[in-house]
Amino acid sequence: MNGGCLCGNIRFSATGEPDFPHLCSCEHCKKLSGAPVMSWVSFPEEGFAWNGPGGEPTWYETFPQICRGFCPECGSSVASKGDEEGWVGVTITALDDHVALAPVKQSFAHNAVAWMPPLG
Fold it and tell me: Which residues form the CENP-V/GFA domain (predicted)?
């Protein structure tokens, strides 16, 4: 699977199977996205590559040893690292083709906004 940021500066490819597509409504994801949730999916680090002209995204540590990556040009949030060893998280909508991926759970559902029902 391939994907990247809005301007194309940050691009990636993943040859492994996507794992655990989910929504997240933790405070950090809500602040990062400016939205009530972010959508994430993980890929094995082996077979994952940053291949755009900008290389890897710029990383910001949101929790100790957990970073979120964004494009320094357009600001798109595209990735996460450090959540689980051996895996890279990407925002589902950063994928060029994300039609087949539907979130199966919502992390931090207890922190969801009151006007949007949480996902199971």
Answer: 1-105
pTM comes to: 0.92
Residue 21 vs residues 4, 13, 64: alpha-carbon distances, Å: 17, 17, 23
Phi, psi of 96 (to 5 degrees): -65, -40
**Residue 31 contacts by C-beta under 8 Å, 6 or more apart in sequence?**
none
19-62 pLDDT tens trace:
999 999 999 999 999 999 999 999 999 999 999 999 999 999 98
Q: What is the pLDDT of residues 98-114, one digit of tens each?
A: 999 999 999 999 999 99
Can you list the alpha helix ranges (DSSP code H) found in the chain? 27-33
**Both structure tokens of 24:** 């997240």
